Amino acid sequence: MAADPTAETGAPRRRRDTRESVLFGGVYGAVLASSMVAALTQHGHGSAASRRYDALWVLVTAFASAFAHGYAHHIAERGPRRGGEALRALRGEWPLVAAVLPTVFLLAGAGWGWWPPGGVEYPALYLNIAILFTLGVLTARGASRRWPSALLIGLADALLGFVVVIANALIK
Questions:
Q1: Which residues, in sequence order, are CB contacts of 59 under 8 Å at separation 6+?
Q2: For the whole model, what pTM was predicted?
């Protein structure tokens, strides 16, 4: 077993900054939400009750994913443990959960009768593509990238959402 390199140098373990956490969690959450919507939505199953069910599953999956990711980071970091570190690692996964909330809102709103439940998966998928694009652009601009570069990064992030939309169309 290799020794902890931070123990030898005395350097603190690397922590992700907020911008990196928001980008990672936001991208992961938006792709997760899109994938869940695509997987849960079946032809002929667009009732209000099924949309409430879908909203709940997207939310449960986001919390489970955030917990698993935060726990994995906590376990992967070697070194002495202090009380509450596991909870801090989980708290750091808030961007993942926040990124699925617009999708949960759309699905739950359809389930509560705010708008028709049939076909709400398409606005949810397109909304997640917009979220991916926006996260890419804002993060790139926050990292002092020029506008052309930031827009390309946003388009690359949005491409992840398009992959889910294309896969959804091909699989159905």
A1: 100, 104
A2: 0.83
Q: Closest Cα partner for 70 from 99, 43, 97?
A: 97
CA distance 53 to 107: 9
Q: Which of 151, 164, 147, 153 is nearest to 103 (CA)?
A: 164
pLDDT tens digit string along 9-56? 444 444 557 778 888 899 999 999 999 998 888 766 789 999 999 999
Residue found under tokens 């750091």: 92
pLDDT single digits (tens) 44-92: 678 999 999 999 999 999 999 999 988 887 788 766 666 677 677 678 8
CA distance 73 to 50: 34
> Does residue 95 contact residue 25 with C-beta atoms inside 8 Å?
yes
| Cα(105)–Cα(109) distance, integer angstroms | 6
The token duo for 113 is 């009768």
- Separation between Cα atoms, residue 157 and residue 160, nearest integer Å: 6
CA distance 58 to 38: 11
Please count the CA atoms within 13 angstroms of the CA of 74 that sit on its side-chain side: 19
